[in-house]
């Protein structure tokens, strides 16, 4: 029980200092996103100490905007600055976490979500008053950002970390099995598997026609003939014992009806088939997430995307932080009885569930 105490000036001062840090951090997140999207981080990582004019020219950008961006980078201590020569330098220790060569450690990719979420703030505020949700269509770059994130957390680690979680799976894929990815987005992971394992057959479902079009285009460019993509609602696909492996990569918690999706996955798996699910590492009750290093971030993502897109179509609105307890309960209710939870060093946000159909 909380006890009311007298106003503590020291506590208040520490709190307001923290608020100022939050304001600066929120602002710099936007600048990180811009640095990633414009290629400025990648450009500077390849340059010697340079002027703003030289950096802008190398990146093919307008110098005045680059100079102001550099102001944010210098004052946030991301970039070093020599006043006498007006020279900027991007330390390699910083580039290691902010460039496309930093896979799977490129934090700049995830920073793009801040601007994406901010673009729907007005609609989210309306939902606080009126209920309902904000549909996927309002998030203009979401699938693009998720595809980038998938490349560094899933695609780059497929053969070394993710697939080996299931004993014998790589050997089975090499011989030839049937694989379904539910909520495949732009199909980055599935296309990579189709290229690596030509004897297996792959299929990807997603309700976004834009995402499926991008997945099909990439498959065509790669010359793949062992893969298909379809626009399909995961709550209503009805297939029986058709697949040896089904995967979902951060795709269940924001579904309208995760319970129905999991039941459909159970039904579509062949006997002794495997369901590999990557989903958020958290507890279902907020009290269990007090020490979670990214809990505020994930609850914000949930409020402004994962929960609201589900509610927008009359769904359950479980949200990003549905947690391990709810996940395990829903898997059991779907019919699964054999579940293992694994964690990988390169992915601090997610659990990897290895689920077998007995």
SSE layout and pairing:
Blueprint: H1 9-37, H2 40-46, H3 52-59, H4 63-75, E1 80-82, E2 87-89, H5 92-95, H6 107-118, H7 121-130, H8 142-153, H9 158-162, H10 169-175, E3 178-182, H11 188-196, E4 201-206, H12 209-221, E5 227-231, E6 243-249, H13 258-268, E7 269-280, H14 295-311, H15 323-334, E8 338-342, E9 350-356
Parallel strand pairs: 3-4, 3-6, 4-5, 6-7
Antiparallel strand pairs: 1-2, 7-9, 8-9
Helix pairs in contact: 1-6, 3-4, 6-8, 13-15
Molecular structure report:
It comes from Stanieria cyanosphaera (strain ATCC 29371 / PCC 7437). By secondary structure, the protein is of the alpha/beta class. It folds into 2 domains: 9-99, Arc Repressor Mutant, subunit A (Orthogonal Bundle); 117-356, Rossmann fold (3-Layer(aba) Sandwich). 47% of the residues lie in helices and 15% in strands. It has 15 helices and 9 strands. The protein has helices spanning 9-37, 40-46, 52-59, 63-75, 92-95, 107-118, 121-130, 142-153, 158-162, 169-175, 188-196, 209-221, 258-268, 295-311, 323-334; strands at residues 80-82, 87-89, 178-182, 201-206, 227-231, 243-249, 269-280, 338-342, 350-356. The mean pLDDT is 94.
